[in-house]
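When time allows, look over one protein, given below as sequence and tokens. The question is which stretches look regular and which look disordered:
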Amino acid sequence: MGQKFASYNTTGIVTGFYDSVDSPAPTGVTAIAITDTQWQDALSCPYPPITVENGVLVIPTLPTLAQAQAAQVATLRTAYGNANATSISFTDSAGVTDTYQCDDVSVQNLNRCISGFRSGTVPSGFYWRSATNRNNSFTYADLEALGLEIANRGFANFEKMQTLLTQVESATTVSAVNTIIW
């Protein structure tokens, strides 16, 4: 065996490995010389991409279990927030089914209306604007029912999140942590 080389593209991502004796790099391929140890480490790296930065081979290091858990928790929290903010389908008392926004501002506005109209009536001509930009006539009961749908989904998402967080905390390997997804 001869000198090992790593070829890479214009963005620095390694595209292949060569040996000066067994498999020389083709003419015109951009490559750097690497040690046998770097070559072995690169071949066993489970976390691509392997890159070349400033003429140096960069092999991603395996995260520790704690690092992998922290990263997965952050990913799950983002997914949880996105699941709660996703528009929800709702059928009002008139039988009209539409989707309604559930981002924080929309939910605050809904809660403000439920609280403000606690007498149980809404103004004449009251409507709630759907995510499809339609003004749908809403009663006070519709406001409450939509709020309940959002709350029930939020609680189901919360329970799912707690289960996933427990799984992440209980995982004993990085690869086990990485299998826990929303």
